Amino acid sequence: MAMRPSIIWTALLLPVLFLADSLLALQPPATCQQKCGSVDMHFPFGIGDGCFLPGFEIECTTGGTPILAGNNNTLAVLNLTVMPRPEAEVMLPIAYNCYNTTSGTSLDWFYGSVGISPAYRISNTSNELIVLGCNTFAYTNSGPGNTNLYSFYTGCVAYCDGEGRAEDGACAGIGCCRVDIPPGLTDNTMTFFASYTASTFFGYTHTNLTYSPCDYAFIVKKNTYDFRVSDLKMDTKTTKPLVLDWAIRNIEDGNKTCAEVKNKPGYACVSDNSECLDSYNSEGYICNCTSGFWGNPYLTGEGGCQDINECDDKWKPYYPCKGVCHNKVGSYGCDCPSGQKAHDDNAYENVCASKFPVEARIALGISLGVFVLIVALLLAFIMLQKRKLDKLFEKNGGEMLKNVNGLSIFTKDVLKKITKDNAEFLGNGSFGNVYKGTLPDNTMVAVKASIKVDEATKEEFVDEVEIQTQMIHKNILKLVGCCLEVEVPVLVYEFAANGSLQDILHRKKDQVLPLDSRLDIAIGSAEGLKYMHSYATHAMRHGDVKPDNILLDDKLTPKIADFGLSKLLKEEYYAKVVVGCMGYIDPVFMKTGLLTQKSDVYSFGAVLLELITGKKNVYDEKLSLIIEYRKVYEKERSGRAMFDNDITTEEDISVLEEMGKLAMDCLKEDLEDRPDMTEVAEQLVMIRRNKKFGKSNNTNPDNIGDITIYNSPTNAEVVSGPTRANISAKVTPSNMDILPSP
């Protein structure tokens, strides 16, 4: 049975450190082996002593197979590239976890740890992560950071609700899922979430899954893997092609940039006409030949960067010339023969012709007719474009939306001006990129793509836009308008200057969010969800409540955003595929596919825990905040041990305890035991009021000092001092900040 190392870096069998300051300008002797099997050896790679730079040794097996030397697994090499992009293509073993299908326990596993040399990073642009199985969530992560935490996690869920559900060629979550990987990945180690005790919380089991006895995960070169249902019983010895980026790196005293190593001892870019570039995947640097030269920038002399003869047939596709080509050192020229001339004197792209041909004189006489024809064609083109935009406008529900009150409809040209042609990128939304824009009145907005609309989905899209337009609440991200003259409709929302709660709570480590602000954010978010659930014209459920979807304006007012998973409460909604962020998904929704308003309550409870603990939903590598907090709470009847130290004071302990208790109520497994969002909002307001005025011994919660307020729908009776006076006053959020907003 394969064993998994406790720390990935201890699996590295290559102790060589890439000391850029101590590298010699090594030139391999002519006796070095130039080829192993079908793979050419390009320096800094090489076979045998003196034939490679440290960390780039290749071993050639007796069977003629090249492998990366010094790794704890045999990685066969398929190809080695120095220019224009430094890459090494290898075969990597798959990770797997196989189960006893009778008991559901693990029988055999291998987590894919290969201990790749520090010179390499797994290419994020050329590879993707694939997970196979019928009840699994697998992920990988980067090497340890400065705080002993992994710098990122990435993975996906592969799920089946029965045999025969997976289909050949379909890798979208049923039996197979795929996801891009971020840069900086140093190891192939996988974690199968279904093998942990916490997996039972989500109902994962492999009992009786004879059609899928193992889970598999592997990183593979893009466009090389096509899912087959038979792969659910894949041979565990299978290997897959993988692309590695490589660079010159110094691990001992910090990876060097070009500015730090250029023209200093050990500088690897030794060829004339070579240049240094900072690595595009993690730290270190690479070498390239400058424009007009080609060869090996790591070698001097004839083996290094040499002038390209751009006039040679093999280079002509890359260096056009429609005249007479003549090579120059580092460039080339292209001129017309004597007596000929190219348009704009540009023989590189335009054909040479006689300077004063008879045809030109004839053309001058008919130029007016040609001009008229061109104008006619241009007008026809404009009309066709206008007709195309009109069809898109109609396809996307424009005729039904143009009379919606409060909704601005922008043309495609106006939208380009608002975003300055997508000049300022803000992030990724549910269906595409999000860009910052400015309306003509200088109002800041965020512009994002919506769902693709066709005849089957047009009515649903129009309904949802109308409903979002009608949802006017200070804690709901306001829909300003839309653009329908595009293939995919674009929605324009109000701008949240402070980004998401995820950003300010977990990513901006130098900024501590005080307890008062966290409590206000919790109240505002609860008010927004309560409005969606109860007060909006059409009650909704959000379906994806998490810190990423709680945006904050310049005053830290929370705005519920991203309604990509929202569903109208016209009827019960059962999801065929459970979609959402792991850690926030309601277990009932996970098990049954039934999405309810109480699902939002569960997700909000997870957000409350993050507010009072300052921890991510998954923290300390593999710990679930919900599970760990519940353990502490059930054992000590208090969550104090997990409160955020930055906001924990003796006077605020009771506030944190009350918020933690409310979070536990929201996270109860039984739907009926959870409060609704109205109760949640009211309890949070009561917590804030108690914090603001201090706890009182009075049994009447509406007694504040010597003034007693008797709430009624439209007025309040006020008693002050020894004498009671009846004063009618309308109680509104503007004059009573202790009441919830409507």
UniProtKB/TrEMBL annotation:
Location in or out of the cell: Membrane
Spans through the membrane: 362-384
Organism: Lolium multiflorum
Ranges of residues in domain Protein kinase: 420-686
SUPFAM superfamilies: EGF/Laminin, Protein kinase-like (PK-like)
Keywords associated with the record: ATP-binding, Disulfide bond, Glycoprotein, Kinase, Membrane, Nucleotide-binding, Serine/threonine-protein kinase, Signal, Transferase, Transmembrane, Transmembrane helix
Biological processes annotated in GO: cell surface receptor signaling pathway
Coiled coil: none
Signal peptide residue numbers: 1-25
Matching SMART domains: EGF (SM00181), EGF_CA (SM00179), S_TKc (SM00220)
Protein name: Protein kinase domain-containing protein
Keyword flag Cell membrane: no
Residues that, per the record, bind ATP: K448
